[in-house]
Write a structure and sequence with these properties.
Blueprint: E1 2-11, E2 15-18, H1 19-23, H2 30-37, E3 41-44, H3 51-66, E4 75-79, H4 90-98, E5 104-108, H5 114-127, E6 133-141, H6 151-154, E7 159-169, E8 175-182, E9 190-191, H7 204-208, E10 215-216, H8 218-239, E11 247-252, H9 257-267, H10 278-281, H11 288-298, E12 307-314, E13 318-325
Parallel strand pairs: 4-5, 4-6, 11-12
Antiparallel strand pairs: 1-7, 2-3, 6-7, 8-13, 9-10, 12-13
Helix pairs in contact: 3-4, 8-9
The protein binds oxa(dethia)-CoA (UT7).
Amino acid sequence: MNVRIAGTGSALPGKILTNAELEKLVDTSDEWITTRTGIKERRIAAEGEYTSTFAAEAGRKALEMAGVKPEEIDFIILSTVTPDFPFPSTACIVQDMLGAVNATAFDLSAACSGFIFGLSVAEKYLRSGSAQKILVIGSETLTRIVDWNDRNTCVLFGDGAGAVVLEASDGDHSLLSTHTFSNGSYWNLLYQPGSGSRNPATNSRTIDEKLLYVTMEGNEVFKHAVRAMEEASVKALESNGLLPSDIALLIPHQANRRIIDATAKRLGVAPDRLFTNLHCYGNTSSASIPIALDEANRQGVIKPDSKLLLVAFGGGFAYGSALINW
Ligand code: UT7
């Protein structure tokens, strides 16, 4: 049994925060942010907008494109590091919002690689015949867990969601492979120290020591990101007997333009085969790849029968790739 992407969708907050506006908040400059990251602006969730808000909207659009009714969905797999609540899962809230009454819904945690991990889990359900249609969503409101006084991190992140409807299919237009990897020895290079069982949000120390914010050793993460994204991409190519020149479009996790360019260069994928949108949205963690995929799809950038490589890296470390024959 093959697995095809039947529809894509994305949703972003309306509120834009530009580099120029950030210059007024912290000691930074448009020049620094642009040259070091490639980011020009990001979207920020407004009051009353949550991770579920964007997830449900992206999911609705993907269902619409696929021509699939919410009640036909067997599973909702939602990746996020910024759920509405620690429990229940944001996926259950989205199930309710969409009316996907026959779905089993759960969240998946693999930081910025969560969407690829979600695709991988969904692929197994579909190939084994345990499901016919699955909604995979990556949704984040990272701006709720960044320290707006810390220039090292607050300039990097943004909010939004992307989604795909995956369905079992006999055709050739399919998800060819997914590969997932973890290296837990670096878990403390990129994490949120507070709000879990080690530093509960109920402990005043958690607030006083600013443990609820994203903490990152940027430089170290950068080096690992390039190596790991190359490794995951090579694995995808080799397992499908493909060469970098066979890839029509590379959609990498949108964390840093320099990481993306270095990865493409090491792989030998030409710059005109890269899809990037981080200049508009910053790093939206697990939402970045499905947002980019939806934009590329709706803009007609992806040609039928072309090969698409998705590759992600993030906290954990967790990383992975997916190869699609569109
Ligand atoms: O999404 C999951 C994976 N995440 C990533 O892949 C992120 C990986 N890391 C990165 O993208 C980059 O490391 C950053 C963009 C976070 C930082 O870029 P960098 O080139 O590694 O800069 P740096 O951390 O080495 O900092 C260089 C300098 C420092 O000043 P000193 O110590 O050299 O005087 C920083 O204090 O830049 C300074 N700096 C800033 N200056 C102006 C850091 N942030 C800013 C800022 N504006 N916003």
